[in-house]
Amino acid sequence: MIPENSKQSEHSAAGLSLSEEDILDAMRHIPGYLDITTADFRMLYELAYRHAQERLFGNIQASQLMRRLAPLPQELPLDQAVLRMAESEAKGLAVVEGTRVVGMLTETDLLRQLGVNRFAQLLQGLLENKVQIGPCCRRVQVAEAMTSPARVIPQDAGFEAMLRAFRSHGGRSMPVVDARGNYLGLLLRKDFLSSCQGERL
Amino acid sequence: MNLRQYFSKMRGVAQSGPPRVSLSEVFWSWTGAFCGIGAVAWIGALIGDPLDQVMMIGSFGASAVLVYGAIRSPLAQPRNLLGGHMISALVGVLCWKFIGEIPWLAQALAVSTAIALMHLTKTLHPPGGATALIAVIGSEKIHALGFFYILVPATLGPLILLLVALLVNNIPASRRYPELWF
Known about the structure:
The complex is a heterodimer.
Chain A: H1 7-13, H2 20-29, H3 38-57, H4 62-65, E1 72-73, H5 78-87, E2 92-97, E3 100-106, H6 107-113, H7 119-127, H8 133-139, H9 142-145, E4 153-154, H10 159-167, E5 173-177, E6 183-188, H11 189-195
Parallel strand pairs in A: 1-2, 4-5
Antiparallel strand pairs in A: 2-3, 5-6
Helix pairs in contact in A: 5-8
Chain B: H1 3-8, H2 23-47, H3 59-69, H4 78-99, H5 103-120, H6 127-137, H7 140-145, H8 148-151, H9 156-169
Helix pairs in contact in B: 2-3, 2-9, 3-6, 3-9, 4-5, 4-6, 5-6
């Protein structure tokens, strides 16, 4: 689960803090005596920033942005998981035990199963006939290959929480879960980013 | 709030005040104040008796600081300049009329009530506190004005200061006055 930080650290995480020199420099750009202290200006700025953030992103929730992609049962053989991933638009799928999320299976996990780190190394192995895909994929179950535990995000996570989650986590997607940890859908980083674009900013 | 927190608030939080203004700002502040206070004094002398020596009151010096020296301040806007002086003058005259026999109480009530009313009417203008106080501590001539004090000097004076502020503050390209009227 995402740790819920305090409001304070949430702000510093969003890069909100202005230095004294930042404010003084801005004040020098405005001719005339400004009847405000730097401390009051900072307070105004932070409150206005928070208000703007709520106006722009206040209504976004992870559950609105997620895709309802079918998850992989953890006992599924890897070759069938590969078929499902090939059909899916995501580069990774959530792995479930029943309805509970237990991990993520990504393309990186598959490469690791084949003993390589990068796609180009896989191609090299295939060219040189050193990598055998079939036997490995039929023998192994998803649960053995997946990354576990998965970084999940609650369905009601807002803009700040999603931003923090993607910032602290290298993955392209995260399973969205309800309060009991049941799988609901997959939040893709690209969907989150495109929701931040355009006329809203 | 414990005692430690209470006293720690007295340390202040800001590391520095606003930067010093440019020399051209200093020049235009000086010019505005010179013309504004000069105009009030000159018109006072022109009218002569019966308004001699009551046209100019000390609080106009404080208003000049705001409307020529800190023209962006909300405290320096026309609504505050005019409203602050007029409301405070009314409060001051009432305090003098009704409780003038108890000077300390009349003085304290005049200033504190003026501040409260300026807050409530969104016309806070620091020199208003002086305008209210002057109505109580007077001179004899000021006391003799009675409610007329609200019109002259407390409305006419700020009107002249405002007119000069509009004329002078808008000359340099870097200045603009007012930020808002009401």
